[in-house]
Predict the structure.
Amino acid sequence: MNEAEAVPEGGLSSLADVGKGGFGSPWKVLVVDDEPAVHDVTALVLAGFMFEGRGIDMLHAFSGAEALTVFERTPDIAVALIDVRMEGDGDGLGLIRRLREQLGNRRVRIVLRTGWGDMQSERDIVVRYDINDYWHKTELSSQKLFSVVVTALRSYRDIVALERSQCGISRLLAASGALFQASSVDEFAETALRELADFLEAGEQAAIYLIGLSGGSGKALPAGLSIVCSRGDRGALRGRWEPGLKRLNGSEQDCIVDHGLVLLHLPTRYFETHWICAETGPSESPPDPSLLELFRVKATAALNHLLHLEQTRSAQRQSLRLLARLESVALLATNPGMSPSGDESDSVLLMLSIQAETAEWGESGALKHIERVGWFAGRLAELAGQAPDFCRAIARVAKFHDIGKLFANPSASRAWHEANGLSQAVAAEHCLLGGEFLRGIAGTTVSKVAHLAIEVAMHHHEAWDGSGYPAGLSGSAIPLAARIVALVDFYDTSLGRMGEEGGCSAAEICSCLPSLAGRYFDPGLVDIFLARRDEF
């Protein structure tokens, strides 16, 4: 076998590439010697060699330089049988030094073979060079060579397993951080599937996340399972994994690896039980159960933390709704006929609006943002020729445009426009909740000002061409107040991110507005805004 046959172009580049040939792929053994007869004898002795169900893929090099090229192209060589002297004294030793120091390959097991030297030179070589065995060629009988190769392969296997374990721990710890950043169960499920599939090298089509109602012990398999998300065809994946889930049912194990499948049970303190199912990748060895258990424990902790936060947020939202409702009812009771959007009620709504914007703007920035949006909206309404009452009203209600963020999932606080349909649906939540909340505190008799506030909260993310949300209104069907707030909110939000990555200057924002007119914004309002841009 010549080098061109033994070493494919490209080769492998990292620990993640080691052993990707699949179960049963041969061990790679390199023979480095300038005598062709040595290659022939070694191949003859190791013909039919098997270790742990895997044979040998024997590679050949006839000089140190040729061997270095083979190592560069094939970093997953398990054992190298290297002659000490080739084409001059110490050629094999120079190869070892370059292999360990230049290529940084510490995994390959090196067996030196020599027909020269004395006891003193052997001692010096063993001490000075990072080798694993040293033999005189005359001492290596067929049986001894077999034993030497098996011992070297076993050592290589253990080193690769240890490195994989260390790498896996690092990756799982990084994955744990990502899991704790999730702000919803859907986002958690997507993150968990991505991280687990990457760890298992399972690819894009081999993971699924399910939720069911908890049974008595919390582990009984429910009659129905809800698929939250999957990486692949849900029906096909579920069909393959249902037998595994039935094996999990009633089992004392929370982590099962069986027939190429991984099943992880994430018990919660609430009324749901969660499973993650994934296929193992083409790695040489099955996934380390201890690492999978570590991932499961971390994922369970992150999930319970998320569910606890969701319960706390839900209670907080209900309390705030009740507080605002009671405040408005009290104001109406003491001031019959007063609009719930009066100055006293404004103070309550202003407080809630600041809290709603705090996550995105910070404590001081939130107040400044809503004050600017209010002023911008009132001024743009004036420039558009609206009546003084309308201008005063929109300057007040524009401050409450994002009040729905207080009650929405945190992930709903996204950019003003989302191209992705699912993300758009999530982002639309704060519009709907904001309108619902304002309608609730307005009561059965909705004043014109309160009606304006509801329109702004619900429709300030509609787009002129109908691509916005939540209702997909277009053109003049979008309430004028919402069209005005949409434009000034976009401007102030973009301007407020100056200095941040992706932030824009006022000039840059104004230069892009003509291209957005007729798509997202009312063209007439854009023209008025740009004509008086210095005021803004």
